[in-house]
Amino acid sequence: MHVLHQIQKPHNYEITVYALNTASIKLPENASPALAGYNILSHVIGKAQLIAPTNAR
Fold first, then answer.
1. For residues 29 and 34, what is the distance between their CA atoms, to the nearest angstrom?
2. Cβ neighbourhood burial of 31 (10 Å; 0-12, 13-18, 19+)
3. How many whole angstroms separate alpha carbon 42 and alpha carbon 7?
4. Which of 55, 52, 57, 27 lies closest to 42, judged by CA?
5. What is the C-alpha separation between 48 and 40, in angstroms, rounded?
6. How far is residue 52's CA from residue 15's CA, in Å, rounded to a whole number?
7. Which one, of 55, 26, 56, lies nearest residue 40 by Cα?
8. Are 57 and 7 in contact (CB under 8 A)?
9. Which of 5, 21, 27, 50 is least enclosed by beta carbons within 10 angstroms?
10. Residues 20, 44: contact at Cβ < 8 Å?
11. What share of the chain is helix, strand, coil (3-state, %, to 5)?
């Protein structure tokens, strides 16, 4: 099988870790990502971000 490789421009991976003022956030099982994000962001007391560049070619 022949696989075509696309040329990719270098890009960054961004990883963010949040410190919350609660041990857990209770959400319904079918909660949307928007609802989860809203609840998480309402409890943030700090965050750290790692930006890792790729070597894509």
1. 13
2. middle
3. 40
4. 27
5. 15
6. 8
7. 26
8. yes
9. 5
10. yes
11. 15, 35, 50
Phi, psi of 27 (to 5 degrees): -130, 150
Tokens of 30: 């079918």
Q: What are the b/e assignments for 12-25, b being 16+ CB within 10 Å?
A: eeeeeeeebeeeee
| The token pair that represents 12 in the structure block | 């960054």
Q: Which residue has the tokens 């421009």?
A: 9
Q: How is residue 9 written in tokens?
A: 């421009």
- Tens of pLDDT along the chain (57 residues) come to 556 667 778 889 999 999 999 999 999 999 999 999 999 999 999 999 999 998 765
